[in-house]
Write a structure and sequence with these properties.
It is built from 5 helices and no strands. The chain has 94 residues and is mainly α. 4% of the residues are buried. This is DUF3040 domain-containing protein. It holds the Pfam family DUF3040.
């Protein structure tokens, strides 16, 4: 490899370490894990809670529980977006 390629690889590794240390450690160990933006365990739990609250609100005719279930379902849907972290970041200053 040439010198510029080595520098780009080192910069890429540093970026991985800064953005997702767990992923970088797993890559070094040779057993890669999913990058942070594709880990959706919390989103599935939020969706399960939202559905449970929504169903409870339907069976116990309670508008507040139904509304809460719908709001939680919306929040869970947002958690499934893999690019939500990038949308919050500011563009770098030049």
């Amino acid at each position: 490899m040439s010198q510029p390629d080595d520098e780009r690889l080192v910069a890429l590794e540093a970026g991985f370490e800064r953005d997702d240390p767990r992923f970088a450690r797993a890559m070094r160990a040779g057993r890669p894990s999913r990058p942070r933006e594709y880990r959706r365990t919390g989103a599935w739990w939020a969706l399960a809670v939202a559905v449970a609250v929504l169903i409870t609100g339907v069976f116990l005719p309670d508008g507040l529980l139904i509304a809460t279930g719908l709001v939680l379902a919306g929040i869970a849907a947002q958690l499934f977006d893999p690019h939500r972290a990038r949308a919050r970041r500011r563009p770098p200053r030049r």
